[in-house]
Amino acid sequence: MALQRLDNQSARRLFLDRHALLEQPAGPAKGADLLALIQRLGFVQLDSINTVARAHDVILYSRRPGYRAKHLKQLYERDRGLFEHWTHDAAMIPMGFYPHWHLRFQRDTELLRNRWRNWQRDGFEAQFETVLNHVRDHGPVSSSDLGKDEKKGSGGWWDWHPSKTALEYLWRSGALTVVGREGFQKRYDLTERVIEEHLCPGAQPCDEEATVSWLCSAAMDRLGFATSGELAAFWDTASPAEAKLWCAEQLRQGELEEIEIQQADGKLRKVFARPGTVETTAELGPAPGRMRVLSPFDPALRDRKRAERLFGFHYRIEVFTPAPKRQYGYYVFPLLEGTRLVGRIDMKADRDAGVLRVTAVWPERDVKWSLPRTKRLEAELDRVARFAGLSRVSFADGWLR
Questions:
Q1: In what order do the strands lie in the sheet with 291-293?
Q2: Which residues pair with 271 in a beta bridge?
């Protein structure tokens, strides 16, 4: 029997809906409402680069224009509605998901010990007790509070002294919890002082099978459709083999079905989805026509290959590319309009002057950059400038490339 199929536009609408980008950007953006949005997304990736605003703030702002950075800080540090750990990268994660991270703590315990030894992080294991005792006696600490006389390694940006490496290891393996940030520097405390006792690692045995099932199921709910490899990559805890076995069992039980989605180039790709996905997708409304600036780390874009298959949008961040070799710019933001990624913009906040300076906009090849589209961009940049605490927008000569 032929598989059910989603044409490319329908697949985009479903995917954007799961990422809270199909509806109008509006609504409350703090407290329980902000937590509900992050639960819907699954997590929000953290990044330190602040050319306009930090990645996590842009991600949330693009969906809720009333959002401000203080709202996330309050939810995280005051209300303890979130915890910080890793998915594919550092992220803010709803506290309700914390029990499912016991498996991550368990696996990182051995994985990172071996990996960091191989990266010549010599001496960090010998600092475990010293670091734990210091935190126990002095309360939350940052890496700058420890190891002041220790020799650093030669790892470039990853140039950690042994106590800093021990802090990170103890956090990643669950003994410590990050309780906030000053600037962008993490503060660590004992997990037992932050997390309710019955939720702490070791309070009860880790059920690997149940955790893998939750991870795969939660990833499917947030993607709409996926291969087993994409499910594994979403939280980056379950292995590809575990996700493949989960999909096979769910397919056997009738909890998943195989469908085809049409990619941007017209080719068909076989994926898993919940039964009835094709029918429910037909009920989704149209995407809003306004233009939106997205973070380079937006959850809808973080899988670059999937974004290219689905939207025909090839994106690579060029932060680590030498300036003369960059095709676009240091930190370029994708532009979403409806269900299309219509271009990318190079811009930066000049905070001293209170100006959002736009260097260049590159439309996608099949996008005609009309006057109405320019007006939509200008309206969005005015909103972004206000969000970033800037008073106006300035376009460089020859900005439209």
A1: 291-293, 332-337, 340-350, 355-363, 392-395
A2: 259
Instruction: List CB contacts of 214: < 8 A, sequence separation 6 or more.
Output: 100
User: Tokens 């209170």 sit at which residue?
Assistant: 354
pLDDT digits (tens, 9 = 90+) for 90-119: 999 999 999 999 999 999 998 888 888 766
CA dist., res. 102 & res. 271, Å (int): 29
Q: Between the CA atoms of 168, 172, 177 and 180, what dihedral angle is there, to the nearest 10 degrees?
A: 60
pTM above 0.70, yes or no: yes
Pick the closest to residue 189 from 80, 73, 69, 92 (CA basis).
Answer: 80
- Count each helix (H run) and each strand (E run) in the chain, helices first: 14, 14
* pLDDT for residue 154: 52
Q: Write out the two tokens for 222.
A: 């947030």
Question: What is the residue type of 280?
Answer: T
Q: Where are the beta strands (DSSP E) in 265-322?
A: 268-273, 291-293
Percentage of the chain surpassing pLDDT 90?
85
Element (H, E) at 5: strand 5-6
Contact criterion met (CB below 8 Å) for 359 and 394: no
